[in-house]
Amino acid sequence: MKFWKMHGLGNDYVVIDNRSGEIPESEVNSLSQKLCKRRFSIGADGLILIYESTVADVRMRVLNADGSEAEMCGNGIRCLAKYCHDNGIVNKEKLQVETLAGVKELWLEIKNNHVAGVKVDMGVPIWDRSKIPMQGDGRCIDEELKLDGESFKVTCLSVGNPHCVIFTSDVTNFPLHRVGPKVENHKLFPNRVNVELAQVLSRDELKVRVWERGCGETLACGTGACASVAAGVALGKVDKKSTVHLLGGDLAVEYSGNIFMTGTVEKVYEGQLF
Description:
The protein is of the alpha+beta class. It is built from four helices and 18 strands. The chain has helices spanning 28-36, 74-86, 176-184, 222-234, and strands at 2-8, 11-17, 46-51, 58-64, 69-70, 94-99, 102-111, 114-123, 140-147, 150-158, 162-167, 194-202, 205-212, 216-218, 241-246, 249-256, 258-264, 266-272.
């Protein structure tokens, strides 16, 4: 079974074409745990599987390192797009990908017959608590969240998957590894939640760190970058076109009804599983 190791801004994935059904459903979760274990296997933040689709060019499944399944992944979908184009699965510069968060449209930047970057229509952000999902009614914008004696102002939304954004004046020194898992597993979020720390650098720049559910801190998160800009716009902190600086690099995000995300994608190496 062949695979590609890929990354979008350091957010890395094992990508496998499973259109033939070689990986049975009963083994998907355990395989993700096995392959993503760093130092003992390939090592990655997640596993991306490609399937046939009846409503789009291909279907994407994203499994986190702990075996749980994500509805959507901004960096992962760019990896999938490059894999599909560069392997001749889809010979288009615009393609549609079916995800658990709906069908997404992507535009490919081609250089020397290979995909160098991808623009993704991430859709319309969801603010209603019941659809994030999050306990309670209405929206959660700049509300207080108490954690073991500490208090944080949070803004919550879904960009195909759930996010909780915390704005801070110092992203670098924020104790993310202590706070992140507490927020991720808070009782308010029945499906857990991704956590973003966002620092405003200017009206069109954010610095963001991400604690991803099922992974821990990652070098980048496409949906997290989109959620941070949407939250910043809702709070009047940033403009609708912003550059998001993540640990692994930068993403361009535009929030104009739908959210559009643009970023690079790279193949690290390819291999074969025995």
